[in-house]
Amino acid sequence: MARPERLPQLFSPSLRPPGVGDGEALSSLQALDADTFAFCCTSGRLGLVDTRQKWAPSETAGPGGGRWCAEVRGEAPGPGPSIAGLRSDGRLCLLDPRDLCRPVSARQCPVSTPSPDPELLRVTWAPGLDHCLAVSGFDGTVQVHDVTSWDGTQGRTDPVFTHRGHVFLDGDGAGTAPLVTTHTWHPRKPRTLLSAASDASLHVWDWVDLRTPC
């Protein structure tokens, strides 16, 4: 497994982010185009950087508590929340890149316990659907959420679909349920995902929202 990168190692000394210690690890690093990228620290600190400019990122300090990961939505249809941040206790925040200091909305995903391995936390936007994302890393499931109706009200969010295939055990069901280690969306099939678990299982599966299509 690759060693986690740390912020100061990504830049020359003249570009080192102010206030960032040598021990601040990255949980997410994403190239947005040839000149800009986004980062998320395990502390929850988010930033957008243009490499053509002197270090002056648009960023926000971490909210504190738990460990975080994040993803920026590719090819967003317009202004609005395009960054999703996920905390190890199931907290899911949507942010507008024009104002990273104030989440547009924040909801609690239905997880029974915090992630047993925060390094496996993953939140991903559906590339072929406008307002859907998936989260994993808490147990043997992958949750799909539709954020169309989300607003600033903080509360609980229920997934429109939960993939439980990795939870099914062989034999009499004895033993420890596997943990989903990663998932990803199929690039050309909007409702198809792939997921892998700690028992070496790999699933390719479709999902259907029986209430309100994304």
Automatic annotation (TrEMBL):
Superkingdom in the source lineage: Eukaryota
Natural source organism: Phyllostomus discolor (pale spear-nosed bat)
Protein's name according to its UniProt entry: WD repeat domain 73
Cellular-component GO terms for this entry: cytosol; spindle pole
GO biological process, alphabetically ordered: cytoplasmic microtubule organization
